[in-house]
Amino acid sequence: MSCDVTLTVPCMDCGLPAISVRCKTCCARLRSGRPWERLKHTVFAEESHCWICGTWVNQDLPQEHAKSRTVDHVQALRDGGPPLDRNNCRLAHRGCNTARTNQARGNRTHTTLSVDISTI
Ligand SMILES: [Zn+2]
Ligand SMILES: [Zn+2]
C-alpha cells in the first residue's frame, strides 16, 4: 500500500515547485555567502558541545571526519526554518547532523528502520 505521487508545494523563497517548504536550490543558496559564514563562526566560537548527542566537539578535526564540527539547523531549512537566526543554529558533529537529517527524510518517506537496541 503505497502511492508514488510526490506532492509539490511552491518554495517559500522562489515560488518554484518543491517537495518541501523550501526548495533545494534556496537551501543551498542560504548555506553559502558571507552572513552564513559569519553565523557559523559565531556558533563555533560560542558552543563546544554537540546539541544532538551532548558530547564535546573537537573543532580541530578535518572537515571530512565524522566527528568534525558542523552547524545544524534545529528547524531544517527545507522545513522553512530561519537560515540566519542564531537561535535556530546549533553546533553538531557531522555524523550526528547527517543521521538526524536522514532520520527526518526517513520519516517523510515512511521508511521503516529496524534497529536492535539490545546490541548497542
Ligand atoms: Zn526556492
Ligand atoms: Zn554529536
TrEMBL record:
Keyword check for Hydrolase, yes or no. yes
Q: Which InterPro entries match?
A: HNH
Q: Which GO terms describe its molecular function?
A: endonuclease activity; nucleic acid binding; zinc ion binding
Q: Which domain of life does the UniProt lineage start with?
A: Bacteria
What region holds the HNH domain?
67-103
Keywords carried by this UniProt record: Endonuclease, Hydrolase, Nuclease
What is the protein name given in its UniProt record? Answer: HNH endonuclease
